[in-house]
Write a structure and sequence with these properties.
The protein is an alpha/beta fold. Helix content is about 45%, strand content about 15%. It has helices spanning about 15-25, 35-55, 60-70, 95-105, 125-130, 160-175, 190-205, 215-225, 230-235, 240-255, 260-270; strands spanning about 5-10, 30, 70-75, 85-90, 115, 135-140, 150-155, 180-185. Strands 3-2-1-4-5-6-7-8 form an eight-stranded mixed beta sheet, sandwiched between helices. Helix 5 (about 125-130) links the parallel strand 5 (about 115) and strand 6. The longest helix has 20 residues, at about 35-55. The termini are far apart. It binds 3-hydroxybutanoyl-coenzyme A. This is 3-hydroxybutyryl-CoA dehydrogenase. InterPro entries: 3-OHacyl-CoA_DH, 3-OHacyl-CoA_DH_NAD-bd, 3HC_DH_C, 6-PGluconate_DH-like_C_sf, 6PGD_dom2, NAD(P)-bd_dom_sf.
Length: about 280
């Protein structure tokens, strides 16, 4: 099966980036979110990114227009009926995600369709079990900003059919132009299992008064050639996302390095979520 028709559930930071990647790769993409406002914000985010792509010489104006023409925005989940690949990128809430998978299972007609989750850390098996086709469910995890970061993680649950993961690996490489890596269905998969303890160490360093956020970030940028420092990166990922991911790794493993720092929890409670709300550790 050649995947030509894709769907994305949720057009927040990650969903809109994933939709953009798929549309730029030539697929027809239906993007669904729950409200007209959310859909409008997602479309705006994609248009802004396309504009940056044109400005940076990554795409021509014609390519931008063609990619935009391949995108359809909706609030109706039923629009996923004819999709061959649906990537769920809703908020990191297990009950919401399970409900979406159960609904998709009833809506998506093609038995060969693949249902994927972009979850950052939740067990894929729980979403698979919400469907009647658990062997066709897997994790396909993109990195922020999705149009720029080359990596995708492919996560097989204990019941994912090997040919489904193989097909997504070929698709990721040949159609999306991404670099896939494979992970077991373990908390944080590969990247977040390493990244979250690092980001939390940096936040604890700041919290304890050990160093300023600027010096922590400059240290890792200029000392270790990271493209951005950990405090700024936490802001970019979203402090709420960092909190959810850390909590979910901590709950399952008890790893103290993944325990969310108190400062992070307080900032999330205070609505300081980073770049997406304009204020986090930095002003954006
Ligand atoms: N479309 C196409 N290309 C674009 C683009 C767009 N909208 N925006 C930028 N680019 C390209 C630029 O042209 C440039 O390409 P070049 O290197 O070939 O010239 C490249 O992307 C970098 O863009 P900029 O020059 O605008 O930006 P910076 O150099 O300041 O880099 C950054 C910005 C890419 C965000 C970089 O700082 C970075 O990589 N930071 C780290 C990001 C990271 O670690 N992400 C992972 C987070 S973890 C995650 O997402 C997992 C989740 O589960 C928590």
């Amino acid at each position: 099966m050649t995947i030509e028709r894709a769907g994305v559930i949720g057009c927040g930071l990650m969903g809109s980036g994933i939709a953009e990647v798929l549309a730029r790769a030539g697929l027809s993409v239906v993007v669904r979110d729950i409200s007209d406002e959310a859909v409008a914000a997602g479309r705006k985010r994609i248009e802004k990114s396309f504009a940056k792509g044109v400005e940076r010489g990554k795409m021509t104006e014609q390519e931008r227009d063609e990619a935009l023409g391949r995108l359809t925005f909706t609030t109706e989940l039923s629009a996923m009926a004819d999709r061959q690949l649906v990537i769920e990128a809703a908020s990191e809430n297990e009950d919401i995600k399970k409900k979406i998978f159960a609904e998709l299972d009833a809506i998506v007609t093609d038995e060969q369709a693949i249902l994927a989750s972009n979850t950052s850390s939740m067990p894929i098996i729980r979403f698979a079990q919400a469907t009647s086709r658990p062997e066709r469910v897997l994790g396909l995890h993109f990195f922020n900003p999705a149009p720029v970061q080359p990596l995708v993680e492919i996560i097989s649950s204990v019941v994912t059919a090997p040919e489904v993961a193989d097909q997504i690996e070929t698709f990721s490489t040949q159609v999306l132009g991404k670099t896939p890596i494979r992970s077991d269905d373990r908390p944080g998969f590969i990247v977040n299992a390493l990244l979250i303890p690092f980001l939390f160490s940096a936040i604890r360093m700041l919290e304890s008064g050990h160093a300023s956020k600027e010096d922590i970030d400059t240290g890792m940028v200029n000392g270790c050639a990271h493209p951005m420092g950990p405090i700024k990166l936490a802001d970019m990922v979203g402090l709420d996302t960092c909190l959810f991911v850390g909590q979910s790794i901590y709950d399952e493993t008890g790893d103290p390095a993944a325990k969310p720092p108190v400062l992070l929890s307080r900032m999330v409670d205070g609505g300081l979520l980073g770049a997406k709300t304009g204020k986090g550790f930095y002003d954006w």
